[in-house]
Amino acid sequence: MNANALENLQRLLPEFYKAIGQTLIMVGVSAAVAIVIGGALGIWLFASAPGQVFARPGLNRTVSWLVSFMRAFPFVILMIVLMPLTRAIVGTSFGPLAASVSLSIAASFYFARLVEQNLNEVPKGVIEAAQAMGAKPLTIVFKVLVNEARAGLILSITILLIAILGESAAAGLIGGGGIGDLGIRYGHQRYMPDVMAEVVALLSLIVIVIQSAGNYLSAKADKR
Q1: Integer Cα distance of 161 and 47 in angstroms
Q2: Whether the predicted pLDDT of 178 surpasses 80
Q3: pTM of the model as a whole
Q4: Which domains does the chain have, with CATH numbers?
Q5: Do residues 182 and 19 make contact, with C-beta atoms less than 8 angstroms apart?
């Protein structure tokens, strides 16, 4: 790192600390909402599929189409479309909490599909064995299916966190703040490539830490 780059970093340290805090708010809030709402939606998508414990084929197809549509919706456009809703919920359309509204919605549909896929990987014999022992549908879902899929679910949460981190960078385009916004404002708009390089390095480090932690926890949870 040359003297000029080091000087820029020292000068912008308060901005870096602020940006890291904003990113943590966006990722933390959005991930929590997505895990709860998206997890429930993913479980329902699996359980309501034909041949499953709460089979509702028609409704399942409709909701599945909605999930696929929302997953394909461009995130930046989604943020703009949801601005009135964001203002109604948090009172403003700018800042990390405002960005968390759109991030939470997008992440919930994304995580729902991941959860559905994880549950689909559970051997059918496990479900049949639970049914043969007289287990109730809710018991099968939460004590059998979720338990069997826990290693995959941990990896899915890891993927979710990394995806939200990436989308939070895009949130900076319309005033969401965060590390990505710092890179855009200083690295791109003010032609400071050293700041952009530092932002990329920081985001890469965060991704590596999240992925390593997720891999470790998944391996610990895997019964095989």
Answers
A1: 25
A2: yes
A3: 0.89
A4: 3-221 (1.10.3720.10)
A5: yes
